[in-house]
Amino acid sequence: MSLRKQTPSDFLKQIIGRPVVVKLNSGVDYRGVLACLDGYMNIAVEQTEEYVNGQLKNKYGDAFLRGNNDSRMYRRYCKMSTIQDLALAKNRSIFMGGDNSREV
Amino acid sequence: MFSKSGPAVPELVDKCIGSRIHIVMKNDKEIVGTLLGFDDFVNMVLEDVTEFEITPEGRRITKLDQILLNGNNITMLIPGGEGPEV
């Protein structure tokens, strides 16, 4: 049993390049290969499949998922525009906006 | 006037590293797993995870190997907890 202390940033470095599932609060899952991410948990995934309620709905070459760590809210909007620029630069990419919250 | 030594959340969470922990989220979801580590925002790395979703149709249980849980939506941490009654 490997029980060494592992912080979130260690974990994230370890899984880059591996297949992951990103689960949003809205109940949507994104399965693909983790390309990169940043300190705000903005995530870039390649060969992405979008599952809604367990059913495959869409496939994307590249997907950008916006993180939403509120503690750095004042910088969030600057970061968003950078990710948006990257998304626009890649023709086959999509950009996922919103705060990933589920509507109650 | 105000005491500086209030409850230190990071210290308390650190005590749980290596043990099972039950996490209740803001939405209808609960997570049970072994705590590997966490950060200043209480984002948590867990392994051997069971995810409980409380839905109108009943509960959906998923098993996951290792996860990073976003601390934004955590409501409550229960050290040594086993999760909701099945």
From TrEMBL, chain A:
Locations listed in the record: Cytoplasm; Nucleus
A matching Pfam family: LSM
Sample GO molecular function, one term: RNA binding
InterPro entries: Lsm6/sSmF, LSM_dom_sf, Sm, Sm_dom_euk/arc
Gene Ontology annotations for the cellular component aspect, listed alphabetically: Lsm2-8 complex; nucleolus; P-body; sno(s)RNA-containing ribonucleoprotein complex; spliceosomal complex; U4/U6 x U5 tri-snRNP complex; U6 snRNP
Keyword NADP found: no
SUPFAM superfamilies from the UniProt entry: Sm-like ribonucleoproteins
Sm domain location: 7-79
Domain of life: Eukaryota
Gene3D superfamilies linked to this entry: 2.30.30.100
GO biological process, one term: maturation of SSU-rRNA
UniProt keyword terms in alphabetical order: Cytoplasm, mRNA processing, mRNA splicing, Nucleus, Ribonucleoprotein, RNA-binding, rRNA processing, Spliceosome, tRNA processing
Subunit field text: Component of the precatalytic spliceosome (spliceosome B complex). Component of the U4/U6-U5 tri-snRNP complex, a building block of the precatalytic spliceosome (spliceosome B complex). The U4/U6-U5 tri-snRNP complex is composed of the U4, U6 and U5 snRNAs and at least PRPF3, PRPF4, PRPF6, PRPF8, PRPF31, SNRNP200, TXNL4A, SNRNP40, SNRPB, SNRPD1, SNRPD2, SNRPD3, SNRPE, SNRPF, SNRPG, DDX23, CD2BP2, PPIH, SNU13, EFTUD2, SART1 and USP39, plus LSM2, LSM3, LSM4, LSM5, LSM6, LSM7 and LSM8.
Function: Plays a role in pre-mRNA splicing as component of the U4/U6-U5 tri-snRNP complex that is involved in spliceosome assembly, and as component of the precatalytic spliceosome (spliceosome B complex). The heptameric LSM2-8 complex binds specifically to the 3'-terminal U-tract of U6 snRNA. Component of LSm protein complexes, which are involved in RNA processing and may function in a chaperone-like manner, facilitating the efficient association of RNA processing factors with their substrates.
Classification via PANTHER family: SMALL NUCLEAR RIBONUCLEOPROTEIN F SNRNP-F, U6 SNRNA-ASSOCIATED SM-LIKE PROTEIN LSM6
Family: Belongs to the snRNP Sm proteins family. SmF/LSm6 subfamily.
Protein name (Swiss-Prot/TrEMBL): U6 snRNA-associated Sm-like protein LSm6
Organism (species): Oncorhynchus tshawytscha (Chinook salmon)
TrEMBL record, chain B:
Record keywords: Acetylation, mRNA processing, mRNA splicing, Nucleus, Ribonucleoprotein, RNA-binding, Spliceosome
InterPro entries to which the protein is assigned, alphabetical: LSm5, LSM_dom_sf, Sm, Sm_dom_euk/arc
Pfam families: LSM
Stretches assigned to the Sm domain: 8-83
Gene Ontology CC terms, in alphabetical order: Lsm1-7-Pat1 complex; spliceosomal complex; U4/U6 x U5 tri-snRNP complex; U6 snRNP
Subunit note: LSm subunits form a heteromer with a doughnut shape.
The protein's role, per its UniProt record: Plays a role in U6 snRNP assembly and function. Binds to the 3' end of U6 snRNA. Plays a role in pre-mRNA splicing as component of the U4/U6-U5 tri-snRNP complex that is involved in spliceosome assembly, and as component of the precatalytic spliceosome (spliceosome B complex). The heptameric LSM2-8 complex binds specifically to the 3'-terminal U-tract of U6 snRNA.
Family statement: Belongs to the snRNP Sm proteins family.
Name the record gives this protein: U6 snRNA-associated Sm-like protein LSm5
Taxonomic source organism: Oncorhynchus tshawytscha (Chinook salmon)
Gene transcribed to yield this protein: LSM5
